[in-house]
Model the fold of this input.
Amino acid sequence: MTTNKPFGTLTPISEEAACCGDDCCGDGESTEITHAQLDSITAAVQHEYGALADRAGERASQTNKATDRLYTEEQREVLTDEAAGASAGCGNPVGIADAKTGETVLDLGSGGGIDCFLAAKEVGPTGSVIGIDMTPRMLELASTNAEKLETTNVVFKLGHIEQIPQEDDSVDLVISNCVIALSEQKERVFSEIFRILKPGGRFVISDIVTDKPLPDDVRKSAAEWVSCVGGAAVMSDYLAMVEETGFDKIEILEDRKSTGGTEEWRSSMINLTLRAFKPAE
Done:
């Protein structure tokens, strides 16, 4: 990650600016971010999502949350309030991933654990789920949620999605929910996913992409980066990265236009859910 000031002039983060659309990644409580905390995009993201973990219980009581729109009532009923409150996704990858009994699932950017806990029920006691997150406060929250839910087949690890702490060829399914857009090194993320998947394994990821390049000022905005927007890739480039990594059977499961905000460029935002497979040997 770059160590200079990547965002240029920092402007206050309003509630509208901090939302990627109808499925918000962050929320409007980020005005405390300062240049001292912005030595890298990674630092900004860690700061935002660490604060989000602290507000998880408060956010759980809000109406019209992303979880209310993206997850079924049956799924929400098995979660803690804090797991739902910490959710910052733009899709429901578990809902269409078809995780099978006994499989090993790895969630990139697991946050408070919402997708991990849902996947844990899908794979059953003979399967296992691994959550990877770079924010210690999120990991603490996820571990607390696991204790409350008495979940025994989930483990959470501190790590970066560009360097996943997992063995080669060891995972059946990788999921991720509005996290890869936060990375400056998306090619490396897909390379890491390819490395850890077993031959014939697959990923199902939800993410934010665009149908045309974003304006420079948006890409330099702290608010838009931590909201999964500033780092969003053009969809055609995103799909090309996946193919060039070596994945096949690439399938777009959803490409829904994001809504929210009045700026013209926001009409280019897309909530993408994608599936692809590592070729079997």
Summary: Strands lie at 104-108, 128-133, 154-158, 171-177, 197-210, 233-234, 248-257, 269-277. Residues 1-24, 27-38 have pLDDT under 50 and may be disordered. Residues 41-54 form the longest helix (14 residues).
